[in-house]
Design brief:
16 helices, alpha/beta, six-stranded parallel β-sheet, 407 residues, 2 domains, 13 strands, formyl-coa transferase, domain 3
């Protein structure tokens, strides 16, 4: 039976999840936390490859825990005719299908959108890939860092006189998963009004290109006067804005033209308001290094980074210390909001995980969700589909279904 969960925005929605690793599982994790019943379809012999990612405790991966809590695992070889029949019968009872194989893989197994809507006309299918399902590069393999490079995100990361750098988190995978989550919600809303299903083509590259706030339009608008380039510790369009050396570590501060007078007050430097070097953003950009030096000298007069942040926050100057992800569990703000949750897995023990990112009045996302071993729900799910116990035994014996007591 489905794992117990609180009433959510997607309670009553059933998802068949063929995805693995991160992009697809991110999408379906968000759906499960909003109450959806998710059947995770995994291939033999080992299921989702993320089950083997380190760190692991008692053969259970923290990565897998984070992305797959609350999903029912069915391990079925849908490369075979019998496995494809099971997959289609799952889809007959589903609202949404999610997959993130390379384009063409689902068609090879007769599980493409056209195949599935033949058995469930109103089905919504989200296919997540690196470059999308169409275009000259659709067939190219892609991982998160490839998408960062192609989309220009890597070009904008690092120092201008150094090499492009990769963002240290899987922003392409996770961002594409969130885009798919949003698209599915819209498709469900349209289906409620029209009865029509939908095919959703979600590209990691497209999702990252959508994140450029200036770098795409500015060169065209300025006829090349604006050159998008990585700018290291400084934010290119604004000063002071960027990362500043603090007594213990680093502080991010962004001061717009509407807040600069507050900064002068925080620094106790009213003279800077009339200093011609710093009057107006263009002047501050021209004399950025001098202004950064003044700010960092002031920060050095404090004993701790927290004291600097409090001194700036007292004048409503936007800032924060740069946190290590390892320290976030100790941030009271994140704990209070449920942005960080502590999850006690019976196999791996206590884990610290990201919480659900959507705060909706009257809706409590599900967080205490069980993690299933590979194929743990084979029998219960196939029983729901009308398979007899002896039929399940046969499917297990011939390798169409696989289950393992760990993972």
């Amino acid at each position: 039976m489905p794992c117990a969960m609180s009433e959510g925005l997607l309670t009553g929605v059933r998802v068949v999840d063929f995805s693995q690793y991160l992009a697809g599982p991110t999408c379906t994790r968000l759906m499960v936390e909003q109450g959806a019943d998710c059947i995770k379809v995994e291939l033999p012999d080992h299921g989702d490859p993320s089950r083997s990612l380190e760190p692991r405790v008692n053969r259970r991966s923290g990565f897998f825990i984070q992305q797959n809590r609350g999903k029912r695992s069915v391990c079925v070889d849908f490369r075979t005719a019998a496995g494809q029949e099971i997959a289609r019968r799952l889809v007959e009872r589903a609202d949404v299908v999610v997959e993130n194989f390379a384009p063409g893989v689902m068609a090879r197994y007769r599980l493409a959108y056209d195949d599935l809507r033949a058995v469930k006309p109103g089905v919504i299918m989200a296919s997540i890939s690196g470059f999308g399902q169409t275009g000259p590069l659709a067939d190219r393999p892609a991982f998160d860092f490839v998408a960062q490079g192609y989309s220009g995100i890597a070009h904008m990361t690092g120092f201008a006189d150094g090499p492009p750098l990769l963002v240290g988190s899987a922003i392409a995978d996770s961002n594409a998963g969130v885009h798919a989550f949003a698209a599915i919600g819209l498709a469900l809303y349209r289906r409620q009004r029209t009865g029509e299903g939908a095919f959703l083509d979600i590209s990691m590259v497209d999702a990252l290109i959508h994140m450029h706030e200036t770098a795409i339009h500015a060169p065209a608008m300025t006829k090349g006067d604006y050159t998008p380039i990585r700018h290291g510790r400084d934010y290119q369009p604004l000063a002071p804005a960027g990362v500043f050396k603090a007594p213990q570590g680093w502080i991010v501060m962004i001061v717009t033209v509407h807040q600069v007078d507050q900064l002068w007050e925080a620094l106790d430097r009213p003279d800077l308001a009339t200093d011609p070097r710093f009057r107006g953003n263009n002047a501050r950009l021209a004399h950025r290094q001098e202004l950064n030096h003044i700010i960092e000298e002031w920060m050095a007069t404090f004993d701790t980074d927290d004291e600097v942040v409090e001194a700036l926050a007292a004048y409503r100057v936007p800032c924060t210390k740069v946190n290590s992800p390892a320290d976030l569990v100790r941030e009271p703000h994140l704990v209070a909001r449920g942005s960080i949750v502590v999850f006690d897995d019976p196999v791996a023990g206590e884990s610290v995980l990201p919480g659900h990112p959507l705060m909706v009045t009257g809706v409590e996302p599900a967080t205490d969700l069980a993690v299933e071993a590979l194929g743990q729900s084979n029998r219960s799910v196939l029983d729901e589909l009308g398979y007899s116990s002896s039929e399940v035994d046969t499917l297990l014996a011939d390798g169409t279904l696989v289950s393992k007591p760990y993972g």
